[in-house]
Amino acid sequence: MLRRSILSAAFRGRATRRPFSIVAPRGASVGKERPSDSQSKVFGFRETCFRGYNGFHGLRYQIYQDGISIAEKGPDPFSLVADELSLLANRLRSMVATEVPKLASAAEYFFKMGVEGKRFRPTVLLLMSSALNVPIRESIADGVSGGLSNELRSRQQSIAEITEMIHVASLLHDDVLDDADTRRGIGSLNFVMGNKLAVLAGNFLLARACILLASLKNTEVVSLMATAIEHLVTGEKMQMTTTSEQRRSMEYYLQKTYNKTASLVSNSCKAIAVLAGQTSEVSMLAYEYGRNLGLAYQLIDDVLDFTGTSAALGKGSLSDIRHGVVTAPILFAIEEFPQLREVVDRGFKNPADVDIALGYLGKSCGIERTRELAKEHANRAVLAIEALPASDAEDVLSTRRALIDLTHRVLTRTK
Amino acid sequence: MLRRSILSAAFRGRATRRPFSIVAPRGASVGKERPSDSQSKVFGFRETCFRGYNGFHGLRYQIYQDGISIAEKGPDPFSLVADELSLLANRLRSMVATEVPKLASAAEYFFKMGVEGKRFRPTVLLLMSSALNVPIRESIADGVSGGLSNELRSRQQSIAEITEMIHVASLLHDDVLDDADTRRGIGSLNFVMGNKLAVLAGNFLLARACILLASLKNTEVVSLMATAIEHLVTGEKMQMTTTSEQRRSMEYYLQKTYNKTASLVSNSCKAIAVLAGQTSEVSMLAYEYGRNLGLAYQLIDDVLDFTGTSAALGKGSLSDIRHGVVTAPILFAIEEFPQLREVVDRGFKNPADVDIALGYLGKSCGIERTRELAKEHANRAVLAIEALPASDAEDVLSTRRALIDLTHRVLTRTK
Question: A55, A58, A144, B224 - which has most CB atoms within 10 Å?
């Protein structure tokens, strides 16, 4: 019963975030996420849980497999927007470089290639801009369709830039908050340069993002990005200040994950659509893509914190659990081994408790079920793209394939 | 020559910030701030420098005296908006109280009466709202004048609220930045509760301010407040990362002071006017009032850091100079005693250097000239109010008198 109630709470949690149902294809009730339906599907998986994650089958996997098969024919999603990404990176770099050197080196720290990887968020947003490049009735009627396209693209690039600035600002401030001494294998900025500069550099990026946002002069877009900023803060707050009960709650975990990771990419995806003058239906599909991609991304992140590049437990950095942050794999494991709960409640201040938790996690289906949940979200992201208005323009089709490909890469990434 | 060049740079610095000349009454060229003109006026004062500050005479003082005589007939400016201030304080308090207790106590820390004193910024903004309550041609033509007044007032209250949130957020983050262990006699939040919570609480307030700002759906107002946020960051950056030359520059000091203190109150005053649909001329008068009041406030703050409640040097907290922050009194003293420059260049890491600097300051007119500069700005603030469109409505007149009274209180305050 406990297991059931936690799971249904988890799904209720996600359902309440989703103002628009997109996952109801072929007459199925999947998108409505009725607890009984969701539970039977997840329990269906649980009963066939293996060490690997090839035990999954059913409708959604089929959809997902279709996604992969389409995507595999397409080019590398990052290469489609490589030129624009490079321009964006240069703009961000020169923006910080025009400031005093001390601050420039501080803010540039996170803009270097290799630290932030492939600029995931700007890539998604630039691909989304092209994927939504379909005629809109009203703008054609006004005769403004063709002439505005360059200006529109430039405004959409600004959203990508604003989003990256907000993201990097949150990393800088999170480093102060977490008192982390490493982030992604490199000494964190506050460790290298002190809390003072990390706070200032983060504020500097946030302020520049606000200025650029204001210059777009679109109140709905301002509101979307302000919401994303607020969610980042709320998410951090939810992580910092939890009761024991909240730390054990899947609903709380998913809400925190939405706030900390998925809200920024989902609201910025929606902003891309809003700037293009798309209908509210299309804007919500863009939002749903971003939201589900973001959740899938974070769920896999949580798995990799335990497994690292290998499939073996304990090979990851274990930084979450060592900081007392409880993520999906452990929450699923508690359902199978209720005795793990009291270990979690002790807060992992004692390193021995980390080993005990890893022992239970290894015996459980926690890792597999987390991957499974990530796949569900990836499937929903694919469905959102497939529900976009039809187009036969090659750049629209190729960028939509690339967005679907990204959902695959999120699931299979190893770092 | 050095003295002249520093002073002219100082005035050039202010002149470039001022897009609109309001200080050119009765055919005088004062408002244009030609270096030769400004210098002669300041040198005119220097030659009659006393320990007190009753050595000042001339046109501006006359204007200012008029200001005081008008103001002294009026009621306490704070009492005019006491009910609204109390509502605003309650809204801010309940906003933080709806969050988890840990964060609520963190953010509420700065909202308690006694810490933030009399809520200076919201008072200015609510008074400005009433002071600008004059008929506007366009809105009368549209027939929207009367019906909107309640809604307008509520939107102007939101600006007061947003401004206070931004201000408190900057205090919270400045405490982390400065690693200050005390602020206004009370242990700073980061000392009491840690950097983590101070950063988070500041971000929380900034995020809420962004959400409230977005809800006003006015792109010009968003832009004004985003500019104020950016200036706060730039000002903090200017203070943290200076060359020796910058630390000795009056121009740099005034620019930093505008960014750190005057920009928020000036841009929010302008936002009050913009929301009311006022002309750009009236909006700029509101901006000029806020800018000059803010500069006067900070200049007196810099004096009080040396004198405290008494007129005697060394009775203040000396927190600026002990943190190596060089303010107007010392900059003026350097002009009289160039040998003070090398003491300043050593950065006041050695407490003996603070005593040496105080010795030079005592022999100089630094304190008096700083008060004098504050008076000049207070006069300009008065002139901005006097230049507003005529009105015979009693509430308009009484709030204008209160705004003029505030400039007096800023000059005569002892804490």
Answer: B224
A309: contact with B, CB 8 A cutoff: no
CA distance B337 to chain A (A): 30
A219 closest CB neighbour out of B200, B214, B237: B214
User: Does ipTM come in above 0.90?
Assistant: no
**Residue in the block written with tokens 């003996």:** B352
Is A71's pLDDT higher than 60? no
Q: What pLDDT is attached to residue B171?
A: 85
Judge if pTM exceeds 0.90: no
pLDDT at A152 over 60: yes
A217 CB neighbours in chain B (<8 A) are: 219, 223
Distances (CA, A) of B320 to A21, A338, B301, B354: 57, 57, 10, 10
| CB contact (8 A) between residue A176 and residue B195 | yes
Name the average pLDDT for chain B: 77
Which single residue is written with the structure tokens 């993002």? A209
Could you say which residues from 80 to 109 on chain A have a Cβ atom under 8 Å away from some Cβ of chain B?
Answer: 99-100, 102-103
Please indicate if any CB of chain B lies within 8 Å of the CB of A144.
no
Burial of B62 (0-12, 13-18, 19+ CB in 10 A): exposed
Contact (CB<8Å) A222/B219? yes
List Cα–Cα distances, A378 to A339, A384, A410, A411, in angstroms: 32, 10, 8, 8
Structure-token match 């002309």, residue found: B279
Answer yes or no: do B210 and A230 touch at CB < 8 A.
yes
Give B370's contacts (C-beta < 8 A, 6+ positions apart): B299, B302, B303, B327, B328, B329, B332
* Euclidean distance between CA atoms B261 and A283, whole angstroms: 40
| CB-CB neighbours of B21 under 10 Å | 14
> Can you give the pLDDT at residue A109?
63
The model's pLDDT over A364-405, given as tens digits with 9 standing for 90+, comes to 999 999 999 999 999 999 999 999 999 999 999 999 999 999
Average pLDDT of span A277-284: 97
Find the length of chain B. 415
Domain hosting A205: range is 2-412
| Chain A 40-79, residues with CB within 8 Å of chain B CB atoms | none
What are A318-363's pLDDT values in tens digits?
989 998 899 999 999 999 999 999 999 998 989 999 999 999 999 9
Tokens of A324: 């007392």
Burial B318-336 (b: 16+ CB within 10 A, else e): bebbeebbbbbbbbbbbbb
The total domain count for chain B is 1
Res. B138: pLDDT tops 80: no
The rounded distance, in Å, linking the Cα atoms of A245 and B386 is 61
* Tokens standing for residue A340: 């793990």
Q: Whose CA is closest to A318, among A329, A293, A345?
A: A329
- pLDDT value at A210 more than 70: yes
Nearest Cβ partner for A214 among B217, B222, B234: B222
Beta bridge mates, A387: none
CATH number at residue B69: 1.10.600.10
CA distance A269 to A224: 10
Q: Which of residues 210-249 of A touch B (CB under 8 A)?
A: 210-211, 213-215, 217-219, 222-223, 226-227, 229-230, 232-234, 236-237, 240-241
- Most A CBs within 10 Å: which of B230, B234, B244, B246, as the mutation test of the A interface? B230
* Distance of alpha carbon B374 from alpha carbon B53, whole angstroms: 11
Query: Which residues does chain B have within 8 Å of residue A204's beta carbon, measured at their own beta carbons?
Result: 233-234, 237
**Tokens standing for A69?**
């098969």
Length of chain A as a residue count: 415
The beta-strand segments (E) located in B47-140 are none
Structure tokens at B199: 């950063």
Residues B112-139: what's their mean pLDDT? 77
